[in-house]
Elongation factor Ts
Amino acid sequence: MAITASMVKELREMTGAGMMDCKKALAQTDGDMDKAVEFLREKGLAAAEKKAGRIAAEGLVATNVSADGKVASIVEVNSETDFVAKNEKFQSYVADVAAQAASTTATDIEAFLSEAWAPDTNMTVKEALAAQIAVIGENMNIRRFEKIVAENGFVESYIHAGGRVGVLVEVETTVVNDQTKTVAKDVAMQIAAIAPKYLSSDEVPADYKEHEKEILKAQAMNENPDKPENIIEKMIIGRLNKQLKEVCLLEQAFIKDEDLTVKKYVETAAKEIGADITIKSFVRFETGEGIEKKSEDFAAEVAAQMAK
């Protein structure tokens, strides 16, 4: 398979590796992007985590939390341009979508789109979306939603960068006051900034750990070809534990005090407040996460039109 400059560019953006290393990786894997990422990681030339993809799609993330903090939703609605994302009509519409998600019984996007639209029950959510597209004059998409119902505590929300990132955190506690809400807000800000994948290492799937161990083993053997296998195994365990601390919220270093983990911060705060506080779950949406937006070459488009 021919390796193109755009493929090399994409792999560089995904891994942070050098141009020639990316070109070699693609050549070795016959242009398979995922295998090329693993090839670079095995050689120690790429970051431990594959980036979700270029964050290029526009739009907003919005949250909706009930007055008692028991029910909360988070949605991502995409638009074609940042200009529309800043439009008040679009922002108001996204807020309505978040309110719809807070009351929905749907468990997937197809069922959600088929529901009656709360502001006008004569149409479905999908039909209301089409009407908004007609008004705003740009393609839009309700990409995803999540809903959390807190039975023994509350849900805290956090929006970062004007709707670029949104977070919900479910907190289990018998005490709901300004102090426990501050703890929840701190944790939400941590999630927005560091983007953990899991709540704790106990939640990490076994197949994820096994896959990472294989990558780390190849990496360690490439770096230390003369070391015996039992030493390599110890290195793998150490590196995997370090990596899990980076992707698991409760084991991450707390951004406001790196001498503490997030778990230790919550425990310490709970003791000071005199309440049991447990972080039960979280959701983090980032606008355009994993979406590859087509780059437009205006000059080429004009040339193509003129050639017709």
